[in-house]
Amino acid sequence: MRPSSSTTSGRAGATDAGGERPTPAPRWPEITIALTAVALTGSVLLLANAIELRLELPGLTPRSWPTFLGALGLGLSLILLITALVKAPRPSDDNEATTRAGWIKLLLAVAATIVFIVVWPLTAFVVAAPVFVSAVTAIGGGRGIRALIIYPVVMTGALYAMFNLLLRVPL
Amino acid sequence: MNPLESGLAAVVDPVTLLCLIIGLLVGTLVGVFPGITGSMAVALAAGFTLTLEPVQGLAVLLSIYVGANYGDRIPAILVNTPGTPAAIATTFDGYPMAKQGKAGLALVISALASTVGILVSMVVFIIAAQPVAKLALNFGPPEMFALVVFGLTIMISISSKSIVKGVLAGAVGLTLGTIGRDPITGDQRFTFGINDLSGGLDFIAVIIGLFGIAELFDQLLTHREQKTKPISSLGRWWPNKKEYKEMGKPMALSTGIGIVVGIVPAAGGDIAGLIGWDRARAISKNKDKFGKGSIEGITAADGASSATLGGSLITTMALGIPGDSVMAVMIGSMIIWGLQPGPQLFTNNPDLVVSIAAIMIVATVVSLGISLVRMRGMVKLMDLPNYYIWSAILIFCVVGTYTVTNNMYTVIVMLISGVIGLVMKRTGFPAGPVVLGLLLGPLAEANLRRALLIDGPTIFFTEPISAVMLSLAALAIAVPIIAKVRGARRGKGDPGSLEDRLADRTQREAAESKSER
Amino acid sequence: MTLPRTLKLTGVLAAAALTLTACSSSSPSADGAEEVSAYPEGDITFIVQAAAGGGSDLTSRALASELEKELGVSVIVENRPGASGSTAMQYIADSDPDGYTIGFVPVEISMLAHQGFDIDPANYDFLGQIMLAPGVISVPNDSPFETLDDLVAAGKSGSVTMANSGAGSIWEAAELGLADLTGATVVPVPFDGGGPAVAAVMGNQVDAAVGGTAETAAAHNGGQLRALAVLHDERHPLLPDVETAEELGYDLNFGGWGGVYAPTGLPDDVREALADAIATSAQSDSFVDTITKSGALSVYKTPAEFTDFIDDEYSRFASLLEVK
Q1: Which of A93, B83, B96, C207 could form an S-S bond across to B72 if both were Cys, CB 3.0 to 4.6 Å?
Q2: Which CATH class is domain C45-132+256-321?
Q3: ipTM, 2 decimals?
């Protein structure tokens, strides 16, 4: 959410909402990011060398390309780590600040989606989908019969009609 | 009657026109819906169209092809979710424009650019399909490898903030692309004994996750009740004179790129859009604006990806080789009708070739009309309260990705990609290079190894096309680095200050556009 | 307003169907005579291992519409592409053997086990072969190889590159088979699908290719490449002038065949009902017409013949594909 007219309000809002923006930005986030990247790319390199080959061939093997990529990634991650250690982090951040309510909303939405993925095959689309849509709408702040009952049912119906009837892809 | 007359007569038949309208509506609908691609819709429709007359059937299938190419831009611009992979590059400038309150303008420019792209490519189809198609046969493994390497250099231009982070993200994308079976030997790589992984990560699921779901999650995370919703404020619809002028150069360049990429088999609108966007940026005077709501950027992205339609059609009809995945399905249908695409189509059924061209052109013009009218309604939907939009995007993306394989695994891939996309967004890693790596990585590796199997390493430098393309790729990497070093020497290259300047400028522009309203 | 009502109705119907299915499967032989006439009483799902639009999908949809006429219920084609087709095969193996989940079985079922996949033909009931698409060896138009003998000779004195539709594909196996049979050095070059492989021959990028009849025949008849041999025991109607490998003195038989399968353990009456319906459908005019136009041959084998055939193919590919 960067170059919009809301950027200014977003930045102002950050201070009201959390006040968690210390003026000299701390080094640890960038260092943590870089260390994670080193760990990830390093394991790619290790795993690439562990790829089982059914056939020993001359020239490029199935390991070659992943190994190259792992090494490239590791190199870049190390540059990132050195930069994070040596250079002062840039103070301004392009991302809008998060809110506590936002975190809760996010976690609930992810949880609802996971539940939906599990429940859908166990029941039927026409059963699980309206409940899921209704739940996400409620998490987003929707209230009332229109948002929580009519809309989810209509949405499910529309999807059902489109896939099962129009495209003949059974949901 | 000569072939021209009979070919056109078959198209102006009312039943054919009805088929065309139905196809356009279906195509637009599936285009808008993330996950369902044009090729899937064409494949499903092919079941019904086999019973129709060939021209009527082709009217349905080709207009789905065209309609999907318009529909997929809409979610790309409005909610940062490419409706199909062809609209990936549209999100780069389309969504920023929407956030600046220029959604209407972005949609109109996108529709205009797509129209010009398709029409120009169809002109090439009409005049020179057969000679141009020969070009496709020159694209063997070494040429494909060179083209793909050139495509990979785009990573540098789409990592606006930190090149290191951008290229690292690209390397991650490339690595993700190696998951599955090795393209040459079939060995399992990074599959950890999970059967679903041996087919690789589903590309569509990953792009929907990284773009659409990540953006949705970010909005949930930062939501505040009082915030204004810039997207619903449409702003201007039509470009002004200056903006039309701005569109000219990228339009011409990207259409050319789109046609060539379209002709190359196995390269379609997704790759073309990215290359078109990148090349337009390279020649632009306002490079900094790319990725931040540039009119040139969206023109180039949509012009290039749409011009692949004519290019693919050339390869398909003149050679009988599918120019892209939709065309592969189309060939299957045509054979059942007893029409064999290939050089003999032009000699045996010239009237049909005329009909195909006419259907494409009519479908494109009608699409432009529909999209200019319909988009007002589409954008109005963005006025609805956020919770409606969020839940709609989420269920659309889940259902859309599910139908790609009818397997929950694909939905899980999408959800995980969404979470990773959010983390990347929050930590300053751009999503574009990941997608680029995932898209081009398998092509790069497979074609490199094919070329080595066939001819050995010298081939890349002895074949003219690949030699030129690899040198261009080297330049594309070197030029920005040299420019940066030089800039630093002159003392104005401090990236921090540059970015601050950019941020100031975009804010100023946003304020200007606000006062215009 | 009508939408919610329709929905509710569908819900009720779905529930009813579920209950019915549950009943029928939970009481296997309570009153057997009635059950014979009862199957099928609900929709049948037909699983395809490839995405919508390919050859397998086309064949499956053509067969499904014939099966609908035979069985009097809806046969819904469901595409479950991924992991070289093993996703769909696994799905079939895991479904209930009640006759309501069947699928299109491709040649890969006899190959995947030798390529590191956990796919065993013993987990399935095979209900009949329905088609065969023979492979064709082709060379570029201006190739010095005029006959299959020339190609083999070149492979013996040096090596020849041969394009195919992908790593682990049947056409790659055919190339390995050619090398195995003749002792020629063949470098298989896997491409991403049959179209690109044939394009590589047309563009003179490889010495030769093995491809399906559909893509090769069109290019051969259009004068874009030269087909040297059909890998089947009789000539192909789309390539009447091209000799079979057998006629040329090579015992090479490679084809992309397909049939219908179900998880193992189908009740006898269900298996018979399905096998009968498949036999009629696979030999119906409209099905034969569709698959012939798309380059395949109408080849029918009964469940018993088909099962034996798959066993043979399985052991043949074991020696060809497995790395010692």
Answers
A1: B83
A2: alpha beta
A3: 0.83
